[in-house]
Amino acid sequence: MKTVQQRQRLSHSAGSEPSRGSPTPSASSQSSLKGSNFSSSPSSPREEYTALGSPDEPLPSIEGRSQSPTETSSSSKRISGTGTGRARTHSVSVSPPSSTLPSRGLNSSPGTSPRRIGSPFGDGGETTRIAARLDGLDLGDSPSRLGMSDVVDAIADIADNLGARTPSWRRRQTTTVSPDAGGSSLGLRLPADRRSRAGSRASLIPHDVRDEEPPPNHFHDPAVQGAFGAAKALAARLAGVLEASPLHASADSTIKRLHRRTRELASFRCPSTRTVGFVGDSGVGEPPLLSNSGAACTCVVTEYHHHAPDDFVVEVERFDRDELTNQVDELLKSYRRFHLHAREMSKDDGVEEAEQQAKVALDTFRAMFRGRLGDEAFLAGDREENVLSTLRSWLNETYPQDDGRYTMAEAQACSSLLMRLTSETAGVREPAVWPYIKTIKVFLNSHILSKGLVLVDLPGLRDVNSARRKVTERYLLHCNEVLAICHIGRATTDAGVASVFELAKKAELSNVGIVCTKSDDIRAEEAIKDWKGPRARRIQELSNEVARTQGQIDEANLSLAELEDDELTDQEDIELDLSRRLRSLGQDLQKKRFELKKYLIENRNAIVSSELRKEYTKNNSDGTLHVFCVSNTEYWARRRLSKDDALPSLHLSGILALRKHCLAIIGDSQLRIARGFVTNDLPALFGDVALWIESGAGSASAEQKRTVRKALDEVERKLKRELVGRDSALSRVGESIKEGFVTEIDGSTGGDNWPSRLAMTGLAGITAASYSAFCRQYGSYCTPAVGRRDWNEEAIAELVKDLGPRWDKLCSSIEDELEENAELMDDVLARALELIQLEDLPRTRRVLVVALECRRKAIVSEAEALFGKFNEELGTLRIDALSGIRTSFIGQALEKAYRDSNMQYGSGSDQRRKGIINDALGHSNLFPKYMRDFGNRLKTSADGLQEQLLEMLQRHLDAFETTLNLVRDENVATESEENPGLRRCLEVETATAREELGRIKEIMAA
Questions:
Q1: Could you give the CA distance from residue 654 to residue 650 in angstroms, rounded to a whole number?
Q2: DSSP string computed for 111-129
Q3: Among 80, 90, 18, which residue's Cα sits nearest to residue 560?
Q4: Do the Cβ atoms of 874 and 811 come closer than 8 Å?
Q5: CB of 23 closer than 8 Å to CB of 90
Q6: pLDDT-above-70 percentage for the chain
Q7: Domains of the chain: which residue ranges?
Q8: From 70-84, 291-305, 676-690, 759-773, the region with the lowest mean pLDDT
């Protein structure tokens, strides 16, 4: 039985602050700071991206999986006794706790534990980096480094609409309750008979990606989006009217054609117009490794595209046989070089890199030729030509024979396929598929992708596999935005980021940004040491507040524990008061923890972003650099809470800002397409319907109809003659471009002097070690003795000085010529419309001219887009011809020389290397071949433009003909005359639709 004094003390604990004798945070704040980290392990930055888009299914993360070693939970222990001599440990950890969110992946079964996806490094190699895009499988227990595939997964919200479950944090607790969703216990011990009333009463509706603030772009304005949707609804409504007539199912009827076109417009989506590439080091210095689960994975370029159906389509592009043969040749040379000559090689010869390349070669051979390789000794023991012949024959036998296209209804099936395509499993006897794959395209129904984005997950520019590195380099030249991925802790010194900006500098790219991952991976005590001054003092203040509140929770828990040992009759009321106080303290602790976390993360984000901008902004022509700091852990820790509870953490994660940026990239292009839809496509459709209605009016005589047909036939002939005829200027666009190249570039007189000028590149005098290092880096490297140099750029420096201005002049003249051709098209179409003089049928003429006017604008708009794309190709050609990047003309011309130099070793190797490089630079065919490659690329692009232009013009001429037939075809008139009811319905519907379309145009144009 407790004394009166004990009762009073318990009552005081339930209703007020602890006494002054309660432990203060100052005694434990420093020790508790050791637990103030926001990630329990320094795992993969790539994992941050699991969070970037899935609006319903959180993919389980290995980040924050376990409690910090220094985090304690003494407050959760039950303590009996009088309360004297109590020792308390104040937990001040603000680490994101191990999640209790739904974590079972899409492939998980009830009887299996969830496994993490997309860990490309550590013991797991690049574990399931692509297959993991659709489920929660963890093929390795060790932390990974860069999980860039998760970036793409999350932005594309791959789990979108795959089904959500009631978050597990809503399930009733049995012993403790954490106010931090998915968090570790704060020691809030609630009475068992009260816990049913302890749950949150907040809304269960979580944050939705679709509700996020749109970018400040007119296309993303809700009014514009609503108007765009209303425009498509007009087409759907018209389709409904057409479907009411049996004619829409008649094979030869005009109504069937109109219905088909109406349905196409009703389901119209802006095509994907912008590509965002995510690139980061993945596999640097490492061959594919078996993970704990026995799976290995390589880095394969993976594109994510949108399509409307709810199924999944995977398209695989393989290296062709010649490409694979070259890879096998190179791999075999690398293997034999090390295993036959390692003892003769020195550090200057690159023995360490040679060993690494030999491992890559062996792992690749094991994957490609599983079941055939047998005794690997023959790779080095037999004659090289014999081994190569054997490997080539195996390559032909194992080359995949299917068409590389797969369609699946379920995410699990898609995940399994991607895993099979990109990884190998121990114990499986069949050859792996990944060595044969160049790129993978995944088509799925995703909200973010539906806005017009294509997301590309790319291997790093320092990838050990040179073939994949080259693929990455080519992709980056075509991306509208490039985001270099790195861990925030090493962002300013990350070699992968530096390599991306180095490429951007050489290729004159200005669309490069940086994404720093694991922004939550920061410890308070380390921040105090690093920052000092006001920041350090503020961190200490916030930490003290956390510790103070934790101490109050400890005191209240102790009082509750003592109370449960009592037999007081009024225990229930005191217990209830204590429970309420614990709940209030828990909420307060959660807020203070978040405040400390927010202060640490935001300050570190600002510091790192500032340093990165100082380092790299100079590389961007517009003087800006987009830097994003993101955390997957912070995102998913509260992702499933109600919107109000979740948004602070979601914003702090940085993921919403990154997603918003990606959407902003597509705004202008998508708005242009949407405007074309409402100003050209829909009015043209309504015009065709109006002509069908008018053709059945029966107001024209036979003579008038003959006159109309004659006039319209002449209009059609004129259009065909002037647009696609043999003598049309538009039929000679490609030839004109090629002639300009011959005149401006091939006519250059400096070519004879280029080889002799190469002697001035200054390669003499470089030490053997530096020379070897430059060769291993294919001419682009930096050493303390030599500094940063690029031999490829130096080799063509005089050529660029000579041809650069000529090329720029040619491109300017081509651009002017293409603009003139667009104006010519517009003029031809306008003059053709003026020929439509139907004096006896003014109403028909008015409707016809309006319909054809819409088609005229559509033709000119599409031609301008086509010409714009060609100008972009010229920009890429300039990079290939006048830069020194590895996949440029000069880079490819010297590739073999660098590779042969890298095969040299031992005594005299330095002189042999220099001889190989000098011979390549002075070869008589170097620049003639260079110019042939230059001309052939220009010719291919010009021929492609001509073909696409004529195809586009012919397609629109066919549409013109179809519209003209609505007036001059007797069958159309008969069909319309015989269906007066349908005519009346369509007349009413099109009149209403035109009126609504006028309002829609005003909104879109504002």
A1: 7
A2: TS------B-SGGGSSBTT
A3: 80
A4: yes
A5: yes
A6: 75
A7: 729-759+795-968
A8: 70-84
